[in-house]
Each structure stands twice: as structure tokens, then as C-alpha cells.
Design goal:
The structure holds 2 protein chains of 2 kinds. By secondary structure, chain A is α+β, with helices and mostly antiparallel strands. Chain A is 45% helix and 29% strand. Classes of the chains: A alpha+beta, B alpha+beta.
Chain lengths: 147, 372
């Protein structure tokens, strides 16, 4: 459960807010819920590793928005921690997280998570394609003194 | 010393009103949107995020707009905003080895596994002004459309993790290891800088340090002030996922994806009786596409490690931790520098009194001597 949940929460967090809002609106879902924690904008300290793999150090912060809610009918709890300052993004992410723990799961997977995963994968492939086009092979030239 | 003054409210209001109009410039010219700055001034946005020490491209773009393009003023705005945010936690250390690289070059290995990827770089451009960019509307728009078509025609590729170059050297023990550690790192934003600083604290200070200052410091090491000839083992830019432990859930989730620039230098090191010869490392990591900054940080990081690596202190500025870390922050620097333009009337009045008194005494002295 937690592995699958980890995956969908990550997809929801990384989704462009506007894309997620459109996909959510298209489902026509509007479940009743109560806030356990209203959307809150804050920061998280991003850590790097010395030498790429060594001891951690604090690189700088990034903005995040979090919230938690409980569905009125199903009673399941949804959490969201999403990059940026978009409270609607956090609310929809938490609602989807809560609904994914109900019988609506397969419907939401098809309507929201699968398209988000496909978009994300396509974006990564396109970016990798752009990068691959700039791949270069350097040749060392024979220098005068070697001749 | 600054002593509070009163008055001037009307003049200050009028000055700020004029500032707002000056920011807007000629109303016959279209106003810049924050999104335009974010997308088309992306490297300025990267610098403001790195030195503002807050990753948020929209906020950085807004700050650049508000600051009329004065990047240090924009960084100041970001730093001030940052202090208003509640800290919700910290992330897991970034896995830069899993980066989706848009650029990755090595100056040490030409046939590096994973390949040399130039990415969107100014390198190998001729640094000639491109007047096509100055053409109004049509030409610029057409060019952009052509570029998009070219990008669409490019075949997709499978993204995959690109191994770190230093990893190859490390496998043969040719470079000092960078071993993981669970110790929580010190945080400059929570406790004031204390010297001597750990390498983790130094890297945080350098990551938010002024690019120009660090560039000068790094350049000084290349010119011989602190001898540490550096090879860029690897420079990579790309997107990394940011994972954060969620206490309510008891597991970590990805909260987003950010662009960072990482530079690893490979530096000389002569071994000792107990240790065989090994290369040493300098390391720089920075938010955004900020490669000049990341390279400079790596060079300065390496120079500051002289004590730990048993090197000689040559008295070079870049080896002086107190000097470097105390002067790298452009917000501290500009705050102190610029405050001297604010009213110092009381201070100056007392100095004026003193000079007048000294001059009176000097003028009286010969007469007194003559009288004796």
C-alpha cells in the first residue's frame, strides 16, 4: 500500500497544477470533506551530499504547500505535500490521495494518475531526446611535438 | 552609527511612487509578465533562487520584475520573503546520480560512460550579438516556431541515470571517497556562522554566496593564490526529484522536481607514507542552471580544505575561511555597504566638532609657544 501510495503522491506533487486541475474537473467529482489541516504554504530545506554521495549539507530551501483532509462519506484521510505555493494543487492532490483509498480507485487511476504518468514520461523522453541531440564525441588531435 | 531621523514622509511617498512608474518604464512598450521573465530570463531566475536560497521560479521572476532587474535587490526580496515561511521539514539528500541531465560534460575523460552532452550552452558560440533577436515580432516569432519544429522532429530518448565520473575513479581508489553520513548538517539559517566551520556549513554558505565574489575567489586560486589546479571532472545540469519524509505517513514521498547544477573537480594530492597517492575533490552544487557559480564553489571549496588535507597555508585569500565566508553573502555585504548612504548626521556632526576643535587648537598652538 505505502509503495503504491508513495508513487501516486509523487505523481500528484510533480504534476503541473493546471494539468491536474483540468483532469480533476473533468472527473466531475466533488466529494464532501473536512480539513484536518487547511492548505499551508511553507518551505522545506533541500539537502545535497558533499561530493555527490557523501555527508549531507543544506543547499537551500524550496517552497511547498501541504494540507490534510478527511472525506465525509468514506472517512479516508488524504495528505498532500506539493512543490510551490498553489493551494488548489495541494487540495486536489489530497482529495485524489483520499479517494485512491476508496472504491473510486480504478476510476481515478484511469482519469488522473495514468494520464499524469504518461505526460511525465513523455516530458522526460522529450527532454532526453533534446539532450541526446547535443551529445558530442571529442577527438584529441595529434600535437606538433609528437610528430 | 545610524541614528534614527524623522520627517520626509511626503518626499519618501513621492519617491516610491516615481519608483513604481520608473519600474514600468515607457508605457508605449508592453509590460513584462512574471511568466515571461521566468521563461526567458531563466538564468537570472536561477541566480536569484540560488543566492536567495529559495527554490521557487515564479517568486524569483516576480522579485526580478519588482527589483527592475537589479538581481541583488531581487535576492534581498527573496531572502526577506523566505523568513516569513514556516519550515515544514527537510528533504532527503538529493540523488544527483539519478538526475535527468540536460547537460553533462567532463574535462577529464573524453569517452566518459553516459556521454558528453552539451545541452543548451553558450560554450562554442561566437559571442557575436544576434541582431535577429532585436527584430520586432515577426522575425523573432518565426524563429521560435522554427526551433519548436526542429525540437519536435528530434527523436525521443529513454532517460536514464548517468553515473558520476568520480565514481569511476573511486572504484580504483584513485580519488578520495565521499562516504555517506547520517549526521544532521548544521544550518546557517538557524544558527549564526561559527568558525572554524565544517565542510557542510561552508558548502551551504557558498551555495548562497555571491556569484561575482566567488568567481573572483575561484579565479584567484587558478592564478596561483592557493595552488590547487582543478580539472572539471564533471559538470552536470538537470532535473532531480526532491523527496521528503512525511511524518504523518511514516514514509518519504516526492514533493517535486528541481533543476540544479553540480560541479565536481578533481584536484592533485600527493600521498603520504601511510596513504598512497590519490586525487582530491572540490564540490559545488547550486539551484538552477548556474554553472559559473557551481564551478566557482567547487574551486573555493577545495581551496578551503587545505587544513583537512594537510596542505600548506599559503596565506592566500581563498584559503582564509573567515575572509571567504564572512564576505560571500551579498545581502549582508550590500546591507552594510549601502547603509552608509542613510542619514549619519549625528555621527558626522560629532566628527565635524572634533575637526573644528583640532583646527582651533592647531591655530592657537603657535601663538601660545610664541608667548612663552
Amino acid at each position: 500500500m505505502s509503495d503504491a501510495r508513495k508513487t501516486w503522491m509523487g505523481l500528484l506533487a510533480k504534476a503541473p497544477p493546471e494539468t491536474l486541475r483540468q483532469l480533476w474537473d473533468a472527473t466531475g467529482l466533488a466529494p464532501g470533506f473536512t480539513w484536518l489541516r487547511a492548505p499551508e504554504i511553507g518551505s522545506t530545506m533541500v539537502q545535497g551530499c558533499i561530493g555527490g554521495t557523501g555527508a549531507p549539507f543544506n543547499l537551500g530551501e524550496m517552497t511547498v504547500t501541504r494540507c490534510a483532509l478527511k472525506l465525509r462519506d468514506a472517512g479516508t484521510v488524504g495528505h498532500a505535500y506539493v512543490q510551490g505555493r498553489d493551494k488548489t494543487h495541494a487540495r486536489i492532490a489530497a482529495l485524489v490521495d483520499a479517494l485512491m483509498q476508496t472504491a473510486q480507485e480504478s476510476r481515478l487511476r484511469a482519469a488522473i494518475l495514468d494520464p499524469l504518468a504518461a505526460d511525465h514520461a513523455a516530458h522526460r523522453r522529450a527532454r532526453a531526446g533534446e539532450a541526446a541531440a547535443t551529445r558530442v564525441d571529442f577527438f584529441t588531435m595529434v600535437r606538433g611535438e609528437d610528430q | 552609527m545610524y541614528v534614527a531621523v524623522k520627517g520626509g514622509e511626503h518626499a519618501i511617498d513621492a519617491a516610491h511612487d516615481w519608483l513604481a512608474r520608473a519600474r514600468r518604464g515607457d508605457r508605449g512598450v508592453t509590460e513584462l509578465s512574471v511568466a515571461q521573465i521566468r521563461e526567458q530570463m531563466a538564468l537570472a531566475v536561477g541566480r536569484v533562487m540560488a543566492e536567495g536560497s529559495l527554490h521557487d521560479p515564479d517568486l524569483a521572476a516576480l522579485a526580478i520584475k519588482q527589483a527592475r532587474g537589479d538581481l541583488i535587490e531581487a535576492i534581498f526580496l527573496i531572502r526577506a520573503y523566505r523568513t516569513t515561511l514556516p519550515r515544514l521539514g527537510h528533504t532527503r539528500p538529493l540523488d544527483t546520480g539519478a538526475m535527468d541531465c540536460i547537460r553533462r560534460v567532463s574535462a577529464t575523460f573524453k569517452d566518459v560512460p553516459g556521454g558528453q552532452v552539451l545541452g543548451p550552452t553558450f560554450d562554442y558560440t561566437h559571442r557575436l550579438l544576434d541582431f535577429k533577436l532585436a527584430a520586432e515580432g515577426g522575425a523573432d516569432g518565426d524563429d521560435a516556431a522554427d526551433d519548436d519544429t526542429a525540437a519536435d522532429a528530434r527523436p525521443d530518448a529513454a532517460p536514464g541515470p548517468v553515473p558520476h565520473v568520480t565514481g569511476f575513479l573511486g572504484r580504483d581508489g584513485l580519488i578520495e571517497p565521499a562516504t555517506p553520513d547520517d549526521a544532521p548538517p548544521p544550518d546557517l539559517t538557524r544558527a549564526p556562522l561559527e568558525l572554524p566551520a565544517t565542510r557542510a556549513l561552508r558548502l551551504q554558505a557558498l551555495a548562497r554566496g555571491d556569484e561575482g565574489f566567488l568567481l573572483g575567489m575561484a579565479y584567484s586560486t587558478q592564478r596561483g593564490y592557493a595552488r590547487n589546479h582543478a580539472f572539471v571532472g564533471e559538470l552536470r545540469i538537470g532535473a532531480v526529484a526532491v523527496e521528503m519524509e512525511i511524518p504523518e505517513l511514516g514514509f518519504a514521498v516526492e514533493v517535486g522536481e528541481i533543476t540544479v547544477t553540480e560541479c565536481e573537480t578533481v584536484n592533485q594530492f600527493t600521498g603520504s607514507k601511510s596513504e598512497p597517492a590519490q586525487f582530491t575533490r572540490g564540490y559545488g552544487l547550486s539551484f538552477g542552471q548556474t554553472e559559473r557559480k557551481a564551478i566557482a564553489v567547487a574551486l573555493v571549496d577545495r581551496a578551503l580544505r587545505w587544513r583537512e588535507l594537510g596542505e600548506e597555508n599559503e596565506g592566500a585569500p581563498a584559503q582564509d575561511e573567515e575572509f571567504v565566508l564572512s564576505h560571500a553573502d551579498n545581502i549582508q555585504a550590500t546591507g552594510f555597504l549601502e547603509h552608509i548612504k542613510l542619514p549619519h548626521y549625528v555621527d558626522f556632526q560629532s566628527e565635524l566638532e572634533l575637526v573644528r576643535k583640532l583646527r582651533r587648537q592647531a591655530a592657537q598652538a603657535p601663538k601660545t609657544e610664541a608667548a612663552q
